[in-house]
């Protein structure tokens, strides 16, 4: 990255206000660290995510490929509008595009002040390595897959039993089963019913939504991290925390702060898997292909089609809607100069839902992830990419596909809540997973 080049286009005050009002505020209102179901319901009713994408497209037409600098007092903030810039920013992270942006620091320090996401330099390198080792990053099938997939099957079966008895599957039951699985995977069987631990984290995350606008609950944070550390010390062999405990020997490793991110991270795949179920329940052709794959592989080790279905749900409704960076110095991005300490925003759906470039932008099309010929350089980055890419990408896809495979081979699901989800119509920009309801019948 060079340090010379031309000035950036600057959004007018009304256009800056439009981005704040239509892109940033709705995303923050939904809760970036802890979703607020009521705000998500409003966003769905008003289709706010679709509006955000349209607004950015309009500004792209008006100002060109950017990055577009906003007019915000006392703050430098740029929005990425060109696909090539997404790849450059993510490839050159964390230097000069630091992951530890000021707003992320303010938010995440409510519950994991020494986490990799808000670390820089040598600390970040060390912590990133620990995540990659424990999560087996890049390996489609984690080395503890035998035990992990058994847990996924067991929790899916128990969920199904309850859902079949009730004749109905709703978000709360799904999320509870998912988190029982997550606690077992992270620490081992004895943590399965430690609801208190994840409830403590939920309280801290709800505060963290407010970043610097709310004081930190330091007493709760200390209690939570101490409890995570205790659980790590007594974790089962082969669990994620067990791998972390063995590798995290340096004093800067801060293993509890790293594990906190895993517990938080398991929210994303729950949302993604539940939405995938909604897509499959409303798209018979894709459901048939997924079921055939699942029946052929009851263990669920590697299910490429179902993984592609999950990736589609994450493309259509990204669970990390904004990827944030901050420049560590003046940077020339393809001839445009970003000043030092400038916030950089990648609004993921602007790219993943861009029907100007993706003919299937608003359809459920798993082939997008499978068909090498239709692959382009277009940034589809639900897990980000480059050196800070989500280190749990493969693990998430393994769990989500295996859990769904178990459900699909044992029961039929009919979506009774969202009539607008149909292959005949463009898929909505916002899908409120908290309100999804399925009628369930054993197969
Ligand atoms: C649907 C599920 C998930 C999605 C879509 C997702 C996506 C992401 C994204 C977009 C980032 C930010 C990367 C960046 O700033 O460039 C990230 C970071 C991270 N994720 Fe995930 N994530 C998911 C689940 C998980 C889970 C379950 C875990 C742990 C078990 C996890 C662990 C992490 C960690 C440790 C980071 C920090 C990486 C770094 O800064 O180097 N994620 N994830």
Automatic annotation (TrEMBL):
Q: Name one Pfam family in it.
A: p450
Output the Gene Ontology terms for molecular function: heme binding; iron ion binding; monooxygenase activity; oxidoreductase activity, acting on paired donors, with incorporation or reduction of molecular oxygen
Instruction: State the InterPro entries in the record.
Output: Cyt_P450, Cyt_P450_sf, Cytochrome_P450_monoxygenase
Recorded hits in SUPFAM superfamilies, A to Z, give: Cytochrome P450
Write out the similarity annotation. Answer: Belongs to the cytochrome P450 family.
This protein is called what?
Cytochrome P450
Task: List the source organism.
Answer: Arthrobacter crystallopoietes BAB-32
């Amino acid at each position: 990255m060079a340090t010379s080049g031309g000035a950036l286009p600057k959004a007018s005050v009304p256009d800056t206000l439009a981005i704040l009002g239509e892109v940033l505020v709705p995303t923050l209102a939904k809760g970036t660290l802890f979703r607020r179901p009521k705000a998500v319901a409003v966003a769905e009713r008003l289709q706010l995510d679709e509006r955000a994408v349209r607004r950015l497209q309009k500004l792209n037409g008006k100002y060109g490929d950017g990055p577009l600098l906003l007019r915000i007092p006392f703050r430098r903030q740029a929005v990425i509008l060109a696909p090539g810039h997404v790849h450059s920013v993510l490839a050159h992270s964390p230097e000069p595009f630091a992951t530890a942006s000021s707003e992320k620091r303010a938010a995440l320090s409510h519950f994991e002040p020494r986490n990799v996401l808000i670390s820089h330099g040598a600390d970040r390198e060390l912590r990133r390595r620990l995540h990659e080792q424990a999560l087996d990053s890049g390996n489609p099938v984690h080395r503890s897959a035998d035990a992990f997939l058994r847990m996924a099957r067991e929790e899916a079966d128990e969920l199904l039993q309850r859902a079949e008895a009730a004749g109905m599957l709703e978000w709360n039951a799904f999320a509870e089963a998912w988190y029982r699985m997550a606690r077992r995977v992270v620490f081992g069987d004895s943590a399965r019913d430690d609801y208190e631990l994840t409830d403590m984290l939920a309280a801290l995350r709800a505060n963290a939504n407010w970043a610097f606008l709310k004081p930190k609950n330091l007493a709760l944070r200390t209690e939570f991290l101490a409890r995570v550390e205790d659980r790590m010390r007594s974790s089962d062999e082969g669990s994620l925390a067990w791998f972390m405990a063995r590798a995290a020997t340096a004093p800067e490793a801060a293993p509890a702060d790293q594990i906190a991110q895993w517990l938080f991270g398991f929210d994303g795949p729950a949302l993604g898997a539940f939405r995938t179920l909604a897509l499959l329940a409303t798209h018979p052709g894709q459901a048939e292909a997924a079921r055939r794959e699942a029946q052929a592989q009851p263990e669920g080790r590697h299910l490429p089609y179902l993984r592609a279905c999950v990736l589609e749900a994450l493309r259509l409704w990204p669970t990390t809607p904004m990827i944030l960076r901050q420049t560590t110095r003046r940077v020339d991005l393809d001839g445009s100069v970003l000043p030092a300490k400038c916030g950089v925003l990648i609004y993921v759906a602007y790219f993943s839902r861009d029907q100007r470039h993706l003919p299937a932008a608003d359809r459920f099309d798993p082939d997008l992830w499978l068909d090498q010929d239709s692959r382009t350089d277009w940034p589809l980055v639900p897990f980000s990419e480059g050196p800070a890419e989500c280190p749990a990408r493969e693990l998430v896809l393994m769990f989500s596909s295996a859990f769904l495979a178990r459900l699909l081979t044992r029961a039929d699901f009919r979506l009774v809540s969202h009539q607008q989800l149909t292959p005949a119509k463009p898929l909505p920009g916002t899908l409120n997973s908290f309100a999804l309801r399925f009628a369930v019948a054993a197969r």
